[in-house]
Amino acid sequence: QVQLVESGGGLVQAGGSLRLSCAASGRIFSIDAMGWYRQVPGKQRELVAQITSGTITNYADSVKGRFTISRDNAKNTVYLQMNSLKPEDTAVYYCTADVRSSFYRRSDYWGQGTQVTVSS
Q: Who's near 43: CB < 8 A, 6+ residues apart?
């Protein structure tokens, strides 16, 4: 089994910054794509950013230029640097990882979520 543990959420004023981290542990052969999603009550979970094993990145239009996703493959960790935060960025943020437990066996895993609250 694989566990994803997120950290770094919290309360920040508009215009401020936060850095989220998500560390994967357990039975890991390799990790393909990793990413961050967010969800507010009553709405669907939406993609924020994702990064491939080759470090190709993709961002939601709403966060382009403000958020940066990165990863440390040696630590099986993905990061989300969030700058110029806005009240509309308030949500529970979830990390996800596409993990291979062997060359032929792949599964998607999710973290437990971390709350980000941006006050105006």
A: none
- How confident is the model at residue 55, as a pLDDT? 84
pLDDT in tens, 20-48: 999 999 999 999 999 999 999 999 999 99
Please choose, from the candidates 100, 92, 98, 96, the residue with its C-alpha nearest in 3D space to the C-alpha of residue 110. Answer: 96
Sign of the Cα torsion 95, 49, 92, 44 reads: negative
CB 69 within 8 A of CB 56: no
Q: What Å distances lie between residue 115 and 25, 33, 45, 58, 93, CA to CA?
A: 21, 23, 14, 22, 6
Contact by Cβ (8 Å): 71, 94: no
Q: Rounded distance, CA 91 to CA 80, Å?
A: 14
